[in-house]
Each structure stands twice: as C-alpha cells, then as structure tokens.
Amino acid sequence: MRTSRPATPTLSDVSHPYRNVAIAGVFNTVQARSLPGHSSLSIAIEAAHGALADAGLTVHDVDGLAGQFASEMGMMLGRGPVSRKLTSLGIPAIIDAAAMIALGECEVVVAAAGGAGIYTERSSTAPWTRPTNEFVASYGLFTAAEFALIARRHMVMYGTTEQQLATVAATIRNNGHVNPGAVFSGKGPFTADDVLASRMVADPFHLLDCSMVSEGGCALVLVHADRVKDLRTPPAWILGAAGDLYGPAYQVAPSFDLGGRGEFGPNGVVGRRAAQISLRMGGLRVDDVDVGEFYDPFSFEIIRQLEAFGFCGEGEGGAFVDDGNIGPGGRLPVTTDGGTMSFSHAGINAQQFQRVIRGVEQIRGTCQTMQVPDAHVALCTNGGAGALFTDVMVIGKERP
Q1: How many domains does the chain have?
Q2: Does residue 33 belong to any structural domain of this protein?
Q3: Left, alpha or beta for 104 (phi > 0: left; psi -120 to 50: alpha)?
Q4: Cα(256)–Cα(149) distance, rounded to whole angstroms?
Q5: Are 318 and 325 in contact (CB under 8 A)?
Q6: CA angle 30-373-177, nearest 5°?
Q7: Is the N end or the C end of the chain the one with fewer CB atoms within 10 Å?
C-alpha cells in the first residue's frame, strides 16, 4: 500500500533556523586613524577578549571561531581543538558562526576581525590611492569611481540630486560627531553645504560623501540559547539573514543595469532579494524595522538601499531623505554610530562587523549616543552596488 508523500515543509512549519542562536557579546576596540604597535591580528584578539567580557564569558568557554583570523586565534587563544570557519567579511562570517551553533557543532563562537598597520601612505585622499595599479584593482579612486557610476545612473533616471546625497553624508557624519568612540568624534557638526563645499573626488561624490580610512578591531560572541541564562547582558536574536551577489567585487566596472534574475531587479537594487528573505524568515515587514544600520561606503548607497529594501519606492529615496526620515527621531534612523564615514573604516573585514555590533547595541538599548527609543528590530547591511553584492541581517529583541 502506497502512502502519500508529505508536503515540503515551509519555514512556518519548522523551527526557525537560528532559534537556538543568540548574539551574546559585542565589542569595538579603540578606533583611530592609526594604532601604532598593533597588527590586524593583535587588535582582533583584543576585540575578542572584549566581546567575551561583554557577554560575561571567558576564552575557556569558546569552542568555535569565525572570521579572517579564525586559524591564528585558535592558537593565540589556546583553545584547540575548536571548530572554525574562515569566512571573511562581516555578515557572512556571522552567519557561519550561527550555523556552527544551530547545527550542534559549537556552543560558544567568537567572530572577530581587525585592521591595523596595513596602510602607510597617508598623504593621499585614502592611503591606497597611489599604487601602480590604482586603475585596475580595488584601490583608491577606482573604488570611488565604481560607486559613482551607480549613483550617476540613478541621478539620470530619477533626478536624485547632489544635495540629497550631501544630506545623507551630513546626517551620518553628525551621528559620528556626537559619538565619543568615533574617529571623527567632535569634528562636526556638518551641514549638506559643508559636504558640497568639500572637494570633488569622483563625480558626484565630494570628499565628505566618501568613507574614511582608520584602524581598529571588533568582535561578536554567539552562543547557544541554553547559555543565555549565564550572560551578563541581554541577548540579541538573529531573525533572518541572506546575501545577494551579482559578481566578483572590484574586478570589473559595475553597472546599475547589470541583470540576472530579473524578478529581483538589476544590480542597482542588489540586496532586495536578501532583504525580502531576511524579513520573511523573521515573519516581518519593512514597517517592523526600527533602525537601519546600513553600510555607508558612499552617501548614495543609503538612498539606494532605502529603495531596494522597500522603505520607499524606486526613485523616491532622495525625497525620503529630504523629509528627515533617516535622522534622529525619523522614521528610520540609519547608521547611528557614524558608520564608515565617521565611526571607523578599519580594513575590509572589521567595519562590516560593526554594522551588526551597532544593531545589537540598539536592540539592547545600550548605545552611548543616538539610541533609538524602544528599538526592537534592526536591519544591518554590508556591501553595495559598486561592489556587486549586499548582505543583510535582521536582528531583534525577541527570540524567533
């Protein structure tokens, strides 16, 4: 006698994939234009100890490591044998750390990154703008030009203005101005006119539309839900996470109109699919998001993400910004620590962790500055259309 095959389960029919994973500790080291005496590894290890202390744990609790230095940290922390994921960048490494716990491999995982002692040419706009291959690799003004291509296309399509870009930059830089931990703390306040008065770097980006360069480390500690009772601080929970990719970052000139799976739009809205998946995974809509810890390599990327994720319609991001929605007290405060424009841009890996770290602080209600009242859900991102990828993570106060 044949039996009918059971229907394929949907997410609503099964446990949430990250239900048993909590973000237990977060930490940023001192961030500065330069940290003499530190290497990228040493500052990442300092961050790992700080995140463990924040969680109320020690290295003796750790059985998993993730991130750029997972192998080295296994020895430096004296924790072998441990599980490890060598994923670089921010959100993908956190997803890997969460999977190690969700799949039963680990109970306490540290994901850490750092950048120090890498760039030494400091007389240029950014220290990497003067190598011999500056126009054929991911260095300096070529990066700015790539993101500028995306911004200019949007301006042609929808009439987005440099003034609107400058409003984004001023908002984020002012978030950093009041943040005592930011590299540019106390350097403002800034107006949109100040941004427009700064020199042009790659049209339409003025100097203050662009991220800076700095050094520092950061880390997160993820634990199995059974360990939450042992924590020093309230946990944050991963409600959803996903990534979008159109191609290898910084190897080919990007195009706003680069296509692929057309139902999700071109590269100009990269991250749309990832945001939809992440929100759906948590049973959420964009209206449920209280704060957007968006990655901010250049000012236009904020406008682009607002549209891609559905906080406003296509071509409406500039007006959304003009209406004060992304500033303090707005509908969706963004990049509340100052981001890569003002807080820190510590190498390729560390600053991408920092978006999630700030999201955790918002959910906990422990931000030193720019705390969003009663924040329950934060949407955090990495990447951008100029790099052909965007990763998304939604975190919240309630366990999924």
Answers
A1: 1
A2: yes
A3: left
A4: 8
A5: no
A6: 35
A7: N
Token look-up 């291509």 returns 149
Say if 265 falls within a structural domain.
no
Q: Which residue has 């366990």 as its token pair?
A: 399
Q: Are strands 389-396 and 377-384 parallel, antiparallel or unpaired?
A: antiparallel
Q: 10 Å Cβ neighbour count for 197? A: 12
What string of pLDDT tens digits covers the 400 residues of the chain?
A: 334 444 444 444 458 999 999 999 999 999 999 999 999 999 999 999 999 999 999 999 999 999 989 999 999 888 889 999 998 889 999 999 999 999 999 999 999 999 887 766 555 545 444 555 455 555 444 788 899 999 999 999 999 999 999 999 999 999 999 999 999 999 999 999 999 999 999 999 999 999 998 999 999 999 999 999 989 999 999 999 999 999 988 777 899 999 877 788 999 999 999 999 999 999 999 999 999 999 999 999 999 999 999 999 999 999 999 999 999 999 999 999 999 999 999 877 788 899 999 999 999 999 999 999 999 999 999 999 999 999 999 999 999 9
Residue 254 lies in a domain: no
* pTM over the 0.90 mark: yes
Q: Is residue 248 part of a domain?
A: no
Q: Which residues contact 56 (CB under 8 A, 6 or more apart)?
A: 25, 230, 231, 232, 233
CA gap 276, 280 in Å, rounded: 6
Angle at 48 between CA 42 and CA 51, to 5 degrees: 145
From residue 238, alpha-carbon distances to 111, 151, 223, 347 in Å are 15, 31, 12, 25
**Quick one: which of 17, 41, 40 has its CA closest to 95?**
17
Burial of 13 (0-12, 13-18, 19+ CB in 10 A): exposed
- In degrees, to the nearest 5, what angle opens at C-alpha 108 toward C-alphas 239 and 39? 100
Domain ranges, residue 92: 21-115
Q: How many helices (H) and strands (E) does the chain have?
A: 11, 11
